[in-house]
Amino acid sequence: MLFRSITSGNSSTLTWSSTNATSCAAASPASWTTSQATSGTQIVSPTSTTSYTMTCTGSGGSTTSSAATVTVSPIIGSSGSCSTNIPTVSSNPLYPLQRVVNFTGSSLPSDWDDYGNEIQQPAGYVAASHAVFVPGTGLEIKGYPDSISGSVGGVTGGSGDLWGSGSTDATNDGVASSGGFDVCFSMSSGSWQDVHLVIISWPSDNNWNEGENDFFEGNPQDLAINIHEIGSNPATNVWQGSWPSALATGTHNISARWDPVNGYRFYLDGTLVGTASISSSVTTPTTSHHLSIQMQDTSEASTSTETATIYWTASYGYN
């Protein structure tokens, strides 16, 4: 019995060979390979720990079997509340942990800042007074009526990576081009109307054509994921998905990872919930991105007052 270990969302290559066999076939699961060759390889991508068995037959009709088990681990630890389960290392060497910003301490981390101006780009998009640090709890981003003119609707609050205002330093911005982010957060339980929390991977130089990954865009009633076109039509969503309904209540960690080989992958509390494969329309960034979190009222007419509490964020590189 052979054992291999992968992180959720990744793949493993199984290799087999035989002596004096005339044919081999997958036994369990029956469909893991259709090959009947006496030697070969097969890439598998299990979503949970799986044992793969192959049976080979010799010229006299005798058979023998061998198995390999691929153990699947979540991308981060998923037990307990993410607010107290802050990562110190990445469990996936493909995406090494670069930095954690923890809002649950006694002071606002120095490497995070409210943007504090109302410009129509995710480097701004805020009324700074609506991002309130609560010592020992987290960063509360408030959404309530506060109209701001512009086609995107009134942006009522936000906060973002301190290094996100045009910096091209990938170490500080979060990701050079591939990698990803984690955000541990909760949302108040009211009817958010047209107020949306938006968690974004945004180009560090504010060039929208270099990609926008809204890996959360919505509220407890609308749990959307939107990947925008990288190119001349950045307003176009080239892939759309949604988070499981469990995200609407309680405290959760959402994770986004992307690279030019595996495409985009989205995890809720360590479990893979969405995949956007590379295609002619779905591509990954080639420039550095930073994390932006904002709150906006798309109708500029909502009467609801709602809050998103951010407990910590983490950025990951790509090997």
In short:
The protein is mostly beta strands. Helix content is 1%, strand content 47%. The protein folds into 2 domains: 2-73, Immunoglobulin-like (Sandwich), CATH 2.60.40; 82-316, Jelly Rolls (Sandwich), CATH 2.60.120.
General description of the model:
This protein has 319 residues and is an all-beta fold. It has 2 domains: 2-73, Immunoglobulin-like; 82-316, Jelly Rolls, CATH 2.60.120.200. 1% of the residues lie in helices and 47% in strands. The chain has 1 helix and 22 strands. It has one helix at 170-173; strands at residues 2-7, 12-16, 21-28, 40-44, 50-58, 63-73, 97-102, 112-113, 131-134, 138-143, 154-161, 174-175, 179-187, 195-203, 213-219, 222-228, 237-242, 251-259, 263-268, 271-276, 289-297, 306-316. Strands 7, 9, 10, 13, 18, 19, 20 and 22 form an 8-stranded antiparallel beta sheet that branches. Strands 8, 11, 12, 14, 15, 16, 17 and 21 form an 8-stranded antiparallel beta sheet that branches. Strands 1-6-5-3 form a 4-stranded mixed beta sheet, with no helix packed on it. The two termini are 30 Å apart. Mean pLDDT is 80; it is low at 115-126 and 149-173.
Secondary structural class:
mainly beta
Indicate the low-confidence ranges by residue numbers.
115-126, 149-173
**Distance between termini?**
30 Å
**Quick one: biggest sheet?**
8 strands, antiparallel
Q: Give helix and strand order, one letter per element, not per position.
A: EEEEEEEEEEEHEEEEEEEEEEE
The overall number of domains is 2
CATH class of the largest domain: Mainly Beta
Radius of gyration using CA atoms only? 23 Å
CATH level 3 topology of the largest domain: Jelly Rolls
CATH architecture of the largest domain: Sandwich
* Helical fraction: under 10%
Please tell me what the overall shape is. elongated
Number of helices: 1
In what range is the share of β-strand residues? over 45%
Q: Mean pLDDT, as a whole number?
A: 80
